[in-house]
Structure formats: C-alpha cells, structure tokens
Amino acid sequence: MNLIxxxxxxxxxxxxxxxxxxxFNLKQVSTGDLLRSEIxxxxxxxxKIESIINNGELVxxxxxxxxxxxxxxxxxxxxxxxxxxxxxxxxxxxxxxxLLKEFNQKISIVLNLKVDKDVVSKRVNGRVICIxxxxxxxxxxxxxxxxxxxxxxxxxxxRTDDNSKTVLNRYETYVAKxxxxxxxxxxxxxxxxxxxxxxxxxxxxxxxxxxxxIRDWHYVCFLxxxxxxxxxxxxYGSYSRYQYPSR
Length: 247
Ligand code: AMP
Hints:
Elements: E1 3-6, H1 13-23, E2 27-30, H2 31-40, H3 44-54, H4 61-72, E3 81-84, H5 90-102, E4 109-114, H6 117-126, E5 127-130, E6 136-138, E7 156-157, H7 164-187, E8 191-195, H8 200-243
C-alpha cells in the first residue's frame, strides 16, 4: 500500500511515519528531508532552495516532482511508500496521481492529522532531530533520553526553519494550499481525519488499526484473485480434458 500522511508543520507526520515503518514494511519519503539533504550537501539545487526553505515558502513543483519521480520509479519502493510533506499543492496531487499510474500504483489512504495552531507552534519550537538515526524528539513533549535514543547527544540538531517567525509562515502556507488537496482526496473517498492534538501513542494506535485493516483487505483481495485465477483454470482444464480426452 502507498499512503499520504498529511497535516500542518508540527502535526507529527515524521514521528508517525517512523512508527509506521517499524511495524509495516513501508518506506517514508519526506520531500522536506530530501530538500534539506540537498542543502546540507551544498549541491547547486541546495544553494538555490536554502533561502526559500528558511523563509517557510514552498519550493517549485518542478523540483519536488523530479525528486518524487526518482523515488516512485525505483522498483524497491513499489507499493510501499509513505508520502510525508507531499503533495503540498493541488498540482502536486495531480502529478502524484499521474506518476503512480505510470508505475501501476495508487494511493490506498490519506491520513489527515488535524492539529490546532497553538499546538503546532509548541511542537515546532521544541523539535530536535537526530541527524544520525533520523528520529524526531521534542524537548518539551518527548525529550530524548537513554531509553528512547541510542545515538550521542551531539547528533541532535534543531532545524533552521523551526523558529517562531518561519513556523507562522509555514502554517499560513499550509492553510492556503491544503483545502483543495483535502477536497480532492475526499471526493476520491481516500481521506481519513485523525485528531493530531492527542499524545503520540494515542495517534499511532488509531493509525495502526487503520493500516492493519487496509493490509488485511489487500490480503483478502490478493487471495480472492489468486483462487479465482487458479480455480477457473483448474475447472476449465478438467472440463477440456473431459471433452477431449487425450489418447
Ligand atoms: P517539511 O520538512 O515537510 O516541514 O518541509 C520543510 C520545507 O521544505 C517546507 O517549508 C518547504 O519549504 C519545503 N518543502 C517540503 N516539501 C515540499 C513540497 N512538497 N513542495 C514544496 N516545498 C516543499
């Protein structure tokens, strides 16, 4: 299954994606992480997009669509992607659908984490990320300690765009762009809303239940198709043998 995890900055998309990965055989693709790694490696693209990201604006569709195409076209990622931070505009949503079609795939569900503005601000201001294991923590709500984090403290960093000024801009951008995307997936009956203000474990419990149901349903469909194909060829095969016995 492929899924989209949707919501404003600080909704917990990355945190929940990490949890999903540890229980389901899926792979997270975060356009934010991909773009930040371009900046970190000081590539030509990285130099171009650094100020855009630090201002909390969106990078051009062409840039992100190209990054996403590379990931979807990789056969190791077939039908096992969690899209985190993509699509972020309706044109990206159209593009995603086209790309998935091209590679014989589709979206199984869009999980929309709904979070209040004041919660977003607290979460983003307290966020720290381990640049070694990529786990996400929050110094107020989910601080790293020897039990939940094995890497050295020196790997914990704050994102340069995680500050009070940029977060407001990022939140406003989200509000302006999200409605048509949510309407689009709602019409397709793929949208499921989750209260993202709750604790991490409570949110994950809900997500886990939803994904287990989808996974079970996929197994049932697979089994049905398998049996249908094999039983019909078995029945048809014996029927032809009866009609035309071999000598
Ligand atoms: P995130 O890590 O998802 O919070 O993204 C951090 C920043 O990367 C955003 O504020 C944007 O500047 C940029 N970005 C991430 N994903 C996208 C996207 N799908 N389209 C455009 N810009 C993006």
